[in-house]
Design a protein that fits this description.
alpha/beta; D-Maltodextrin-Binding Protein, domain 2; three-stranded antiparallel sheet; 50% helix; SBP; transport
Amino acid sequence: MAHWWVSPGEQAGITVIRNYAERAGMQFTDTAIPGSGTARYYESLNDQLATGQIPTASQVIGYDIHLWAKQGRLATMDAVARDEEWDEVIPFALQQLSKYEGHWYAVPFNVHSTNWLWVNQRQFEAIGGQEPDTWTDFIALLTRAKQAGLTALAIGNESWEQTLLFESVAAGLGGVTFYRRNFLELSPQPGDQDIFQHVFARMRQLQAFVDNNYHRMVWSDATRQLQNGKALLQVQGSWVDGEFTARNLKPGSDYQCFRFPDTQGMVLFNADQYMLLNDSKTPETTRRKLTSLLMNRDLQRDVNLVSGAIPARVDAPRKAFGACGRKAISDMRNANMRRTLMGSVAMGNAHPASVKEAVYRIVADHFRGNLNDRQASDQLIQALLGTGPG
């Protein structure tokens, strides 16, 4: 099994999978390929495949599944999916990614949500903070943190991190219909350009609250700033919850999890999945056993208790999870019913990789001061329409 889970919380999740596989009588070996961002992971995986080192399964996310399936490199999971009624228990938005041309090519084993604020509880209390419901509330909270000498907004210098912040700002300002139309359907309408210009203006506003040394950091560095009380909050996916759990921190006493202002009722998601590679020499019976195991409700519960995510099933019980996990499960169930469970732009769950990479470039160029708000808005519209550079 190949994967990119290398942080403490992620490695704890791999240990859970290993334990379940070994108890099921399977020999488990894994290959961790480090590095933030999936592009480097797939490059390394392809290098391994070229030398005949073919794992049974590989981690994958979002529209990358469709790309691998289109190339004919994946085995279908239709038989297991039919027998175990995946259509009934996996949220609809995830099914659209796991399937290609009506066939199951990946098994989702978690749902991470990206539109979260992770807040240091001690510093939050010290500045008399209140949960921000609106953008105005959010800026007021960041301002109080900055005045107290804190890094108000912890973030690293990777394009996907800045795009993750951008997607929450866009969802909060534009709303569900705007987000779906532009990022999922890739169909901007007249007037959307002005909204995007406003989104980029908000991104510029947030830069006043970022650590001066952010360009030397990655997401996990920002999380450590938060953990150590040097920063008030981080806008990041629920894998942060897994990192805090690995360090024995508790929600409600050490940290808080709030939805990004004005995105209440929405869940922007990233789902880790596993695909079965066609050329693996693993027997079919073992492949089916592994596929079924990854969808096992108990395994998904135990993996996600340590990784910070939640099970990729609407029938997952909430009881074992902490406050943030219970909220995430309830939010996902509600969003699945309301069709407000929507793929993360930054994590490749909203649209194909070619568009994602173009958005990365534009958002990063703007964040680094190379584009003004209007230029970034113009280029983004072009990228979503498929006519832009990159």
